[in-house]
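Q: What residues go here?
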């Protein structure tokens, strides 16, 4: 028995195909199976039966009425004419068949309404003629497909016209601006590769952009694929940066950088996750001048600097402060000259073995959020490290095309992600070994498909990814192929958030107390490798925030905490990496002297640095005092006012607050850097 089809799916005037009913999809009994098979053929018979039933009350209302005869005759002619007019876009055969059916049915109904359904030959015409007309529609329905299941005629010709004959649409999911069709390809004749080659023709037939039509093969069945069609570009207007996605969270949380065409978040993951079978990410960012890749990179960096357990080393020897300027105060190290960039790369190579040794010592197979917390023996934690290289072509050109190959092959295991941003990742710009080691890519508008081949995998391009269609005309439009992103999204266009400078400035200042500082292990390895280039690296002051959507109401000026790492740090339990308080800018101008006041020198007791356990006890006492005073929320800044009791620095205090959160004595709130006090009895429970 030939397969029964439902009406073809329409999309902007282009006919995709048919939804095939699978006779085996119902696992019920014989009755359910027969009902399932008969249902598609019932409509003509139901219309015939309904016409006969309605003729009875019509006879009672208009039987023998001259006015009723005129009205019913005009209605019959009008309905027949409307059917002929409505079928102007259908085939001539369907148009004629529909008009004859309506004319015959309305004529019988008019006669039966005036004379009665049992008058003269009307009963015979009803049972014989009505059954015959219903049967013609059933026959037409059966002949829509041939025994091989291939759509025939004008209704199913689109796929055949584009070279996909015998392909059936077995399922569909239609959304307001997106339609997905499950394709069943003829086994042994066509493959998903053939569908990929037909995408330009399909786009032309459907009158949409080339990259609005994509295909994703079924990973378990090479005779199946999913075709996606997006008629309208909803990314055209752009979306403003909505603010941090996980303020004060971990770098292990997704970094939101934009949206896909269906409104889903475009996100990336830096650290690996064994439970999700995801490796740490190295990222290649590629796009021609004007494609918006640098602005998108700033959006990603803005997200990163709002996390509590990551530090950023960034270089841009070509544009210096022009690109990274708003974010410089939040970077642990910014290299804006070629000499500093070379030193940073040297330091990067040196910190990899030091960090892996630390991870091995504490039993970590790879970096995880627990690494950033104080360890069981009291040693300070190790934040994640993101090495971000802007305008990498200049760096590679003035150093070596293999300069990033070694680090990119070794850094993942050390809790380091490397990001390389450049316009064209050809073999003349960077080593193919480096490109192969990066693994993930974020690709913006490109000049041609040859450039796309340097950054996108074959699977994404075969599925319809076409960054060359944008060039520099649509800044921010991009494809993301990265760890943790399903393959179905590889060819889905997205657009990076539009992030104003005010948003970056706000993030720099607002999360100054949240951000991690360079850990002693990384700092010592970098200092030993490049000396003053690291220890005397430029630190940029935090900006003043004006009142507004990204600032404080009072326009608070935040002060940048100085680099206070002990570069002679020895990884032993006795040394917990304390910070040294106090920093004065030697280049700042002194304010004018307005008056002189003579005061007696106060008697200041000597500051004695108490032991670690004693300091922890004092921290607990301070928290108890806060609670007794009626405070419900606290933050590291509240504890810093009492630091003279135990002579500890901000980083140590922040670590203790994090431990209190982990132990349940404090819990996070919606406000970054603020924590709710949990009563002791609740903690004990």
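A:
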């Amino acid at each position: 028995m030939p397969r029964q089809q439902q009406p073809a799916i329409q999309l902007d005037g282009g006919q995709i195909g048919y939804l095939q009913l699978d006779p085996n999809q119902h696992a019920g009994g014989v009755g359910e199976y027969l009902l399932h098979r008969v249902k598609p053929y019932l409509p003509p018979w139901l219309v015939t039966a309904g016409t006969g039933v309605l003729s009875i009350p019509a006879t009672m209302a208009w039987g023998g009425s001259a006015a009723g005869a005129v009205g019913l005759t005009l209605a019959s002619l009008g309905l027949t004419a409307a059917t002929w007019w409505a079928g102007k876009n259908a085939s001539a055969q369907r148009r004629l068949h529909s008009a004859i059916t309506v004319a015959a049915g309305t004529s019988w109904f008019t006669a039966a309404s005036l004379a009665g359904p049992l008058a003269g030959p009307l009963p015979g015409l009803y049972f014989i003629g009505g059954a015959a007309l219903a049967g013609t529609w059933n026959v037409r329905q059966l002949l829509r497909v041939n025994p091989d299941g291939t759509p025939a005629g004008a209704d199913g010709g689109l796929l055949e016209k584009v070279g996909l004959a015998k392909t059936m649409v077995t399922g569909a999911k239609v959304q307001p601006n997106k339609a997905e069709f499950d394709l069943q390809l003829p086994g042994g004749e066509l493959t998903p590769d053939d569908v990929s080659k037909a995408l330009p023709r399909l786009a032309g037939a459907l009158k949409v952009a080339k990259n609005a039509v994509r295909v994703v093969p079924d990973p378990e069945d090479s005779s199946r694929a999913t075709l996606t069609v997006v008629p309208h570009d909803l990314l055209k207007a752009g979306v403003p940066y909505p603010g941090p996605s996980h303020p004060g969270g971990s770098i292990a949380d997704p970094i939101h950088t934009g949206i896909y065409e269906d409104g889903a978040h475009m996100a990336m993951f830096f650290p690996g996750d064994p439970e999700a079978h995801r490796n740490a990410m190295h990222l290649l960012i590629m796009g021609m001048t004007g494609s918006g890749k640098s602005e998108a990179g700033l959006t990603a960096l803005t997200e990163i600097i709002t996390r509590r357990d990551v530090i950023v080393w960034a270089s841009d020897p070509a544009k210096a402060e022009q690109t990274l300027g708003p974010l410089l105060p939040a970077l642990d190290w910014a290299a804006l000259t070629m000499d500093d960039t070379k030193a940073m790369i040297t330091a990067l190579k040196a910190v990899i073995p030091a960090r892996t040794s630390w991870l091995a010592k504490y039993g970590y197979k790879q970096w995880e959020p627990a690494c950033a917390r104080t360890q069981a023996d009291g040693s300070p934690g190790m934040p994640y490290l993101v090495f971000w290289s802007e305008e990498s072509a200049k760096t590679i050109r003035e150093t070596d095309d293999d300069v990033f190959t070694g680090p990119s092959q070794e850094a993942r295991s050390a809790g380091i992600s490397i990001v390389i941003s450049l316009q064209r990742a050809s073999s003349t710009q960077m080593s193919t070994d480096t490109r192969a080691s990066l693994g993930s890519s974020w690709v913006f508008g490109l000049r041609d498909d040859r450039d796309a081949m340097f950054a996108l995998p074959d699977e994404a391009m075969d599925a319809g990814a076409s960054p060359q269609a944008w060039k520099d005309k649509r800044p921010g439009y991009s494809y993301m192929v990265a760890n943790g992103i399903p393959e179905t999204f590889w060819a889905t266009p997205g657009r990076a958030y539009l992030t104003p400078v005010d948003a970056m400035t706000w993030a720099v200042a607002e999360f100054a107390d949240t951000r991690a500082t360079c850990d002693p292990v990384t700092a010592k390895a970098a200092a030993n490798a490049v000396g003053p280039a690291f220890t005397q690296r430029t630190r940029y002051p935090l900006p003043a925030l004006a009142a507004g959507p990204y600032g404080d109401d009072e326009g608070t000026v935040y002060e940048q905490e100085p680099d206070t790492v002990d570069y002679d740090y020895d990884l032993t339990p006795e040394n917990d990496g304390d910070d040294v308080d106090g920093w004065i800018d030697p280049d700042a101008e002194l304010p004018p002297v307005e008056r002189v006041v003579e005061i007696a020198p106060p008697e200041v007791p000597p500051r004695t640095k108490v032991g670690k356990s004693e300091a922890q006890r004092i921290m607990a006492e301070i928290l108890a005092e806060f609670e007794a005073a009626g405070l419900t929320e606290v933050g590291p800044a509240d504890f810093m006012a009492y630091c003279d009791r135990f002579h500890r620095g901000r980083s140590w205090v922040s670590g203790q607050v994090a431990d209190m959160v982990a132990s349940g004595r404090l819990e996070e709130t919606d406000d970054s850097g603020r924590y709710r006090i949990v009563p002791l009895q609740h903690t004990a429970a």
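A: Context that may help when evaluating the design: Residues 357 and 363 are 10 Å apart (CA to CA). The longest strand covers residues 221-229.
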